[in-house]
Design brief:
- It is a single-pass type II membrane protein.
- Pfam families: Lectin_C.
- The chain is α+β, with helices and mostly antiparallel strands and about 160 residues long.
- It has a domain at about 25-140: Mannose-Binding Protein A, subunit A (Mannose-Binding Protein A, Chain A, Roll), CATH 3.10.100.
- The protein is about 25% helix and about 35% strand.
- The protein is built from four helices and eleven strands, in the order H-E-E-E-H-E-H-E-E-E-E-E-E-E-H.
- It has helices at about 5, 40-50, 60-70, 150-165; strands at about 10-15, 25, 30-40, 55, 75-85, 90, 105, 115, 120-125, 130-140, 140-145.
- The chain starts with a helix and ends with a helix.
Length: about 160
């Protein structure tokens, strides 16, 4: 293989991904705030179609950052947390149990309850109620292919430019 053919090969280098258009970055997540209202199960399905999940909140600091993005008081957004009767506990959609020492839920703790986030709190709401919702995607490193010309092309081009009067 000669240098010209070698130069046409794509090289791979890690590049930090940006969030897709209309998604907002918080820490290592991309968030999408849905402005229509649906029941919790429908919002869960919608996030899945967007190759994402309903929001999972890791700690109080992340809760505060997300609440700062909610501009208006009184608007509720579904997150990926609901009450499971079998375990009699709040459970995240990834299967983990809510640590109530980290996050506090206001309202009823009973069957058919799901959790919404507002500008000021986390609220227990009937899962059949219609609210907006927040989807999340993880922000990852990815291999991106880019074309890099061979060094001899770069130096040959600068020599050509210098030879012109």
């Amino acid at each position: 293989m000669d240098a010209q053919e070698n130069g046409k090969e794509a090289t791979e280098r890690p590049v930090l991904l940006r969030c897709p258009m209309h998604w907002q970055q918080i820490r290592d997540k991309c968030l999408y705030f849905i402005e229509t209202s649906k029941p919790w199960n429908d919002s869960l399905a919608d996030c899945y179609t967007r190759e994402s999940s309903l929001l999972l909140i890791q700690d109080h600091e992340e809760l505060r950052l997300i609440q700062n993005l909610i501009n208006k008081r009184g608007i509720l957004f579904w997150i990926g947390l609901n009450f499971t009767l079998s375990e009699k506990n709040w459970k995240w959609i990834n299967g983990s149990i809510l640590n109530s020492n980290i996050l506090h839920i206001s309202g009823d703790v009973k069957e058919d309850r799901c959790v919404c986030i507002s500008r000021t709190q986390l609220i227990s709401e009937l899962c059949a109620a219609e609210n907006r919702w927040i989807c999340q995607k993880e922000l990852n490193l990815s291999e991106v292919k880019s074309y890099v010309p061979p060094i001899d092309w770069i130096s040959a081009g600068s020599q050509r430019e210098e030879s012109h009067p």
